[in-house]
Each structure stands twice: as C-alpha cells, then as structure tokens.
Amino acid sequence: MARIRPARAYRDQKQQAWSRFSKSKPRKSYVRAKPYTKLLVFDMGKDNGSYDLVVTLNSAKYVQLRSNAIESARLEANRYLANKIPENFYLKVLAYPHNVLREHKMGTTAGADRLSRGMVHAYGKAVSVAARLNEGQALFMVKTKRGNEKIVKDAFDRAAKKLSGSYKVRFN
C-alpha cells in the first residue's frame, strides 16, 4: 500500500500556488482532476450567539498545511472541547485547502533509474490539496463563555501538535 509523504515535503511554500480548477470552464483549468479534500466539516458545536469570548489559533510563520493534517487537528480540538465543555462552544475552521499538491512518483524497483531520467522538472500528478497560511493568519476559531480560556488553550495546544509549524493562541 502506498503511503503519503511526510509533512516536511510540503510545509514550505517554495513553489507557485497551483490551484486553477473550474467546473464551469473545464478547458481553462490547469488542474484536470482536483483531489478531494479530507476536510469535510468546518463548523462544530453550537453557534447560539450568547458567547462572549473568541479565541483563535494563528500561524506564527508562513506554512502550508495538507487537508489531512488540518482534519486531524480539527478532530483533536473538537474531541477535547466536546469532552470538557459540551454544548458550550462553537469551533470553526477558517482556512480552506485550495492549493493542489503534485508529486512525481518515482519507481523503486530494479531498473527504475531509466524511468526517471530526463524528468528533472516533471510536473507530477495531483495527489493532495493544501491550505497556505500567512504569518498571523487564523486557522481555527472558538467561541465560548468566559472562564473556559484554559480549556480552549489546551485544545489548541493539542491541535497544534498535529500540525507543521508554530502557532500562537490569541484571545479576543
């Protein structure tokens, strides 16, 4: 079974963003078949409007995050918040993975060196999608009541461990 490459292969924004995908004008698309995002749920908890505290998880530097990493962090934060303060929070994912990541898959069998010759700048096949975060851009937002600051900070600390890069928790 094929495994995905480690996050260090994609976390830096080295290349130009490659995200042109159009359903209405498919001939104008640079990406012929966009991979599905692993991130399907963006809103969790109850948004009843009676919350008086907004907490965000912000990126401390430029970073590129794959959709499966964001989904893993979202699950971790949501699980922790649902256990500690059920029905008392609203969690929202603020970044959407638009950027298509491509990979030139190399053969690992005998004689594979001749397959890869002359393909130094090969375009590769679309394998995943990622979100690009600028310095200070928010990835997650939680609305809750005052007094839950420590629980939300712990949830964001757990989520940040699943992600590449460094993050800061900001209370508003």
Give an overview of the whole structure.
The chain has 172 residues and is of the alpha+beta class. The protein has a domain at 42-105 and 120-172: Aldehyde Oxidoreductase, domain 3. The chain contains 3 helices and 8 strands, in the order βββαββαββαβ. The protein has a 5-stranded antiparallel sheet with strand order 1-4-7-2-8, covered by helices on one side. The chain has a 3-stranded antiparallel sheet with strand order 3-6-5. Helix 1 (67-84) packs antiparallel against helix 3 (149-160). The longest helix has 18 residues, at 67-84. The termini are far apart. The relative contact order is 0.28. The model has no long low-confidence stretch (mean pLDDT 84).
**Series of H and E elements:** EEEHEEHEEHE
| Portion in beta strands | 25-35%
Mean pLDDT: 84
* CATH third-level topology of the domain at 42-105 and 120-172: Aldehyde Oxidoreductase, domain 3
CATH level-4 homologous superfamily of the domain at 42-105 and 120-172: Ribosomal protein L16/L10
Question: In the CATH classification, which architecture of the domain at 42-105 and 120-172 applies?
Answer: Alpha-Beta Complex
What's the gyration radius in Å?
19 Å
Query: Briefly, what CATH class of the domain at 42-105 and 120-172?
Result: Alpha Beta
**Low-confidence runs (pLDDT<50, min 5 residues)?**
none
**End-to-end Cα distance:** 45 Å
How many beta-strand elements? 8
Task: Please list the strands of the largest sheet in the order they lie side by side.
Answer: 1-4-7-2-8
Structural class: alpha+beta
Largest sheet composition = 5 strands, antiparallel
Give the number of helices: 3
